[in-house]
Structure formats: structure tokens, C-alpha cells
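Lab notes, practical 5.
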Amino acid sequence: MANRSYLYSADSMPSEAEVPKRIRCISEHNWDIPLAHKLMVGRGTTIVPSMIWNPPIGIAGDYADGAALLRELLRTVGKGLEDDAEFAECVARTKAHLEKQQAKYFLLETGEIVSMTDDDPEASVRRLASEDIPDAVAKAEAAIAGQNDDWLTSVRADWERHFASFYSEALYFSFPS
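Output from the prediction step:
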């Protein structure tokens, strides 16, 4: 079984006392936290209690702004992949799912990924929220502005790793309505 990062949406953030009332499944990705997940929690990024595991290793971000950033980067990446039907299908599927599952917040569950090393999971999540995610957002913004061509070229060359996650209304960890 693969370790995965899980992305959800909800209209409230989890707290120590409770999880949000309605949690919508967005995506899961094997063995990594992909660029797409980082960008979607890249606006208004905050560490929250996990809805699955005990330590506070969840990350939340603003849904509308995170989705807009991802859509803009996908448009920019697509300018170099106009003849790639698989990329076009991935983008269409991603956009449709994000439209259908929209809420106020994205909620990223990192537990399976941060537990793959001997590092402290909470420290790993703090590093994700304070360094890795802001760095990914800055690189994406620069690429969108036409100022990061080398990075954009590398993302295009390996777009499946960054964007081709499993998007579904039911993930390995799903929550009752």
C-alpha cells in the first residue's frame, strides 16, 4: 500500500474539539505531497489539527485563492503542452472536480507522508507550512509572470508527478456526510 497525501475541502477548519460538518474529498497522491496540493493550500496557509491522526499535522488554506493559483499555473504550463491530450484531459478533470467540490477551505492531510521518515511529524509540517509551500507558491507565481522559465520547463517535463493525482468524491479516508 502506498503512503498518500489527502486533500479535502470544508466550510470550516478542524479544531481540537471537532472536525468540520461536511468534508468533501478532493484528491489523494501516492508517495508525495505534489505541487498541486501545495499550491491549493498555498493561500492563507495555517496548521490545523489532523482529521485523521492525533498530532496537529493538517494544513489548511483558502479554497478560492488556492484553486485560482492552481488553475492559473495549469494554464501557464499548458502553453507548452498544447498537443498533449493527456495533459488537457487531466486539466479538464481537475477543474471540473474543483468546481464541484468547492468550499471555503482546502484541508491537506500529511500524516502518511511525514511519517515516512524518522523526523518529527509536527516539525515536518511546520517546515512544509513555513518553507516548502511558500517556496512552491513563489515559484508558481514567478512562472505565471514569465519570470521562471527553467522551473516551468521542469514542471512541464514531469507534469504527471505534479498534477495527475487521483481526484474523486471518495478517497481512501472518506468522511460520512
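Observations recorded by the TA: The longest helix spans residues 121-144. Helices lie at 35-40, 63-78, 85-100, 111-114, 121-144, 149-157, 159-163.
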